[in-house]
């Protein structure tokens, strides 16, 4: 029997609702901030804001800090000046209240295959990005000797090589720009994990959060990155 089987119905509801906030809502919220969209993302954010506004003020405060502004649990506790036990009880109660207010709707439904999308985003950073850097002759802002750049055997002319190098550099610029649109902690985690090769433990120490939070925030960062770059990189896997 797994640990989750010992959760009360309320605790399970809070956990599932937090997962939805950390993933689907944060992605929609960032899309609206970045692209100023008037479609589905704005509709979702407006609907959530409307529901949250009906909740008690303390619930509004914790949801605003934790999920709208993207604070970690530690940062939210510090901002609200709550002891740990009181904070987690308040957050869970707020999440349960939100879930209760959305019963009978499809608001908490997750449509993309998040697990496969995360795996595809990890593959992009671990494998695809390195190949792009190799063609570009740079590593996300750090120059590399052009002579060391590997070229495919089917690239026969200097013009083709120059075109591929330009395309690769444009892609790197785009990736850097999109990473820069993530929340500050999400940016830090992406850079530490994939650019610097830091472990989860090293990241948690550096960012003053637990390893569980590192995994949660990293998943959210990868999903958000996949979503906001999907038109170009095609990382989102639909169900």
Task: Describe the protein in words.
This protein has 239 residues and is mainly alpha-helical. The protein has 2 domains: 6-101, Arc Repressor Mutant, subunit A; 114-233, Arc Repressor Mutant, subunit A, CATH 1.10.10.10. 69% of the residues lie in helices and 2% in strands. It is built from 11 helices and 2 strands; from the N terminus they run ααααααββααααα. A two-stranded antiparallel sheet has the order 1-2. β1 (138-139) and β2 (142-143) form a beta hairpin. α1 (9-35) packs across α2 and α6 crosses α7. The protein is globular. It starts with 8 loop residues before the first helix and ends in a 6-residue tail after the last helix. 26% of the residues are buried.
Quick summary:
With 239 residues, the protein is mostly helical. The protein has eleven helices and two strands; from the N terminus they run ααααααββααααα. It has two domains: 96 residues, Arc Repressor Mutant, subunit A; 120 residues, Winged helix-like DNA-binding domain superfamily/Winged helix DNA-binding domain (Arc Repressor Mutant, subunit A, Orthogonal Bundle), CATH 1.10.10.10.
Strand and helix layout:
Elements: H1 9-35, H2 40-53, H3 57-68, H4 73-80, H5 84-101, H6 114-136, E1 138-139, E2 142-143, H7 158-179, H8 184-195, H9 200-207, H10 211-228, H11 230-233
Antiparallel strand pairs: 1-2
Helix pairs in contact: 1-2, 1-5, 1-10, 3-4, 3-5, 6-7, 6-10, 8-10, 9-10
Order of helices and strands: HHHHHHEEHHHHH
What percent of the residues sit in helical stretches (DSSP H or I)?
55-70%
Q: What ranges have pLDDT less than 50 throughout 5 or more consecutive residues?
A: 1-6, 141-149
Query: What is the number of beta strands?
Result: 2
Compute the separation of the termini in Å.
28 Å
Which architecture name of the largest domain does CATH use?
A: Orthogonal Bundle
């Amino acid at each position: 029997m797994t640990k989750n089987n010992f959760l009360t119905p309320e605790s399970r509801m809070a956990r599932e609702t937090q997962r939805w906030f950390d993933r689907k809502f944060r992605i929609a919220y960032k899309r609206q901030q970045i692209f100023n969209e008037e479609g589905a993302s704005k509709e979702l954010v407006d609907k959530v804001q409307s529901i949250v506004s009906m909740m008690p003020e303390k619930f509004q405060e914790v949801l605003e800090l934790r999920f709208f502004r993207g604070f970690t649990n530690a940062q939210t506790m510090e901002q609200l000046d709550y002891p740990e036990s009181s904070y987690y009880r308040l957050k869970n109660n707020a999440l349960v209240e939100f879930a209760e207010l959305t019963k009978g709707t499809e608001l908490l439904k997750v449509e993309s295959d998040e697990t496969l999308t995360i795996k595809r985003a990890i593959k992009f950073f671990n494998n695809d990005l390195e190949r792009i850097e190799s063609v570009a002759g740079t590593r996300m802002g750090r120059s590399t000797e052009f002579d060391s750049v590997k070229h495919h055997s089917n690239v026969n002319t200097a013009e083709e090589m120059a075109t591929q190098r330009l395309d690769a550099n444009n892609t790197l610029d785009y990736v850097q720009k999109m990473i820069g649109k993530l929340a500050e902690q999400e940016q830090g985690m992406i850079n530490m994990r994939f650019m610097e090769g830091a472990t989860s433990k090293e990241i948690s120490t550096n960012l003053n959060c637990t390893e569980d939070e590192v995994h949660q925030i990293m998943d959210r960062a990868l999903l958000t990155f996949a979503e906001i770059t999907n038109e170009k990189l095609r990382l989102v896997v639909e169900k």
